[in-house]
Design goal:
Blueprint: H1 4-14, H2 22-57, E1 65-66, H3 69-76, E2 88-90, E3 94-96, E4 101-104, E5 112-123, E6 126-136
Parallel strand pairs: 1-4
Antiparallel strand pairs: 2-3, 4-6, 5-6
Length: about 140
């Protein structure tokens, strides 16, 4: 699907029959592509936030959840220098308090068990996708 816009532009460029409408068609295709991509992103974020809201409502503290940039930035941002002491560095230069719960699109997360999931529709490509909440397994 990533090649669809350049392919459409190439067809518009070489087709003499479409020459008078080239600019309008290109604008419509670009607008349609942008609308579909934005709708997909919004549906993904709605599903993720719904899962996060449900998790927080069960009493799980926000600093025990890896809920993505927006969630962690909103709830776990260090307000002053003292707060930084509770953060520890993780691989990949992420700063977290605890990854007891993780929200992910992964089918499986090693060391974690799936505790909740939510389905949402995508348009690019058209399919149903799933976002999940995982809870860290206790070492046996």
């Amino acid at each position: 699907l990533a090649f669809l816009p350049p392919l459409a532009a190439l067809i518009l460029h070489v087709s003499d029959d479409l020459r008078p409408l080239r600019g309008a068609l290109a604008a419509v295709l670009l607008a349609l592509w942008g609308w579909l991509g934005t709708a997909d992103a919004m549906d993904h974020h709605r599903a993720r936030w719904a899962l996060l809201d449900e998790l927080v409502e069960t009493g799980v503290a926000s600093d025990r959840i890896d809920g993505g940039l927006e969630f962690n930035g909103l709830f776990n941002f260090a307000k002053n220098d003292r707060d930084w002491e509770r953060f520890k560095e993780k691989p990949g230069s992420r700063w977290v308090v605890d990854d007891e719960y993780v929200v992910s699109q992964a089918d499986d997360l090693p060391g974690y068990e799936r505790v909740a999931e939510r389905e949402y529709s995508r348009r690019l490509p058209p399919e149903e996708s799933m976002i999940r909440v995982y809870h860290r397994r206790i070492a046996e």
